[in-house]
Amino acid sequence: MAGGEARPGRGPEVRVKAAVIELKSVERHYVQGQRKLTILSGADFSLVPGEMVALVAPSGAGKSTLLHTAGLLERPDGGDVILGGRACGRLSDDERTAIRRNDIGFVYQFHHLLPEFSALENIMMPQIIKGLPQAEAAKRAEQLLDYMQIGKRAHHRPAELSGGEQQRVAIARAVANAPLVLLADEPTGNLDPHTASYVFDALAALVKQSGLAALIATHNHELARRMDRRVTLSEGKVVSL
Ligand SMILES: Nc1ncnc2c1ncn2[C@@H]1O[C@H](COP(=O)(O)OP(=O)(O)OP(=O)(O)O)[C@@H](O)[C@H]1O
């Protein structure tokens, strides 16, 4: 997964990781009556395996639009999204759904866990949908629950978990199929500062341990500072902070 290319030069060879996801000149507009609202305009962005990037921008700037476009939930109106070297803009809906299922994990502000299933079953679900045998899915779900330090909550339903525990289950579910990229929209936005910090630490450890690439929209500047780099949206473009 973590492919790299050698850069010639003097001194020790430097290996540069290849981007796992790239947004190239992405355009995104919404039409509201007579008005055309431009949200992304020539947006370029990329992530390499193992890096965690904060997306910090005011409300309405287009963070969710960027995440949904990068995550193949919305099609760009121009430009393209390259995932694992594959241009996704013109693929069929079925192909995009398959890529989303296998290669992209989403975490939202609210956990969106299935209320009638246990924590373990919620984490098994995407793996079963992908076609993994039940026993294998259960083993991976147990490992992830242990990793997130909520192994003892495996058989609790979401309503029987605290907010921080629910988000840790949601994070475990998002990475259950070992995606290339994790996209998170305010994953700690609904938690008190102490719990947010704790959940963030668990998320960061998972990203570093698994080598996936993560783009995390947050209004929390303290958490943003703990990521590898920070970007914002300005005039429809992704710019470094
Ligand atoms: N389906 C849609 N149709 C029309 N306008 C939309 C649509 N979705 C989003 N918008 C508008 O596009 C802009 C960007 O929305 P987006 O949700 O991406 O912002 P955001 O930065 O994620 O905001 P927040 O931090 O409040 O979640 C907003 O002005 C929003 O009203």
Automatic annotation (TrEMBL):
<feature type="domain" description="ABC transporter">
    <location>
        <begin position="21"/>
        <end position="241"/>
    </location>
</feature>
<dbReference type="InterPro" id="IPR017871">
    <property type="entry name" value="ABC_transporter-like_CS"/>
</dbReference>
<keyword id="KW-0547">Nucleotide-binding</keyword>
<dbReference type="GO" id="GO:0005524">
    <property type="term" value="F:ATP binding"/>
</dbReference>
<dbReference type="InterPro" id="IPR003593">
    <property type="entry name" value="AAA+_ATPase"/>
</dbReference>
<dbReference type="InterPro" id="IPR027417">
    <property type="entry name" value="P-loop_NTPase"/>
</dbReference>
<dbReference type="InterPro" id="IPR003439">
    <property type="entry name" value="ABC_transporter-like_ATP-bd"/>
</dbReference>
<protein>
    <submittedName>
        <fullName>ABC transporter ATP-binding protein</fullName>
    </submittedName>
</protein>
<keyword id="KW-0067">ATP-binding</keyword>
<comment type="similarity">
    <text>Belongs to the ABC transporter superfamily.</text>
</comment>
<dbReference type="InterPro" id="IPR015854">
    <property type="entry name" value="ABC_transpr_LolD-like"/>
</dbReference>
<dbReference type="InterPro" id="IPR017911">
    <property type="entry name" value="MacB-like_ATP-bd"/>
</dbReference>
<dbReference type="Pfam" id="PF00005">
    <property type="entry name" value="ABC_tran"/>
</dbReference>
<keyword id="KW-0813">Transport</keyword>
<keyword id="KW-1278">Translocase</keyword>
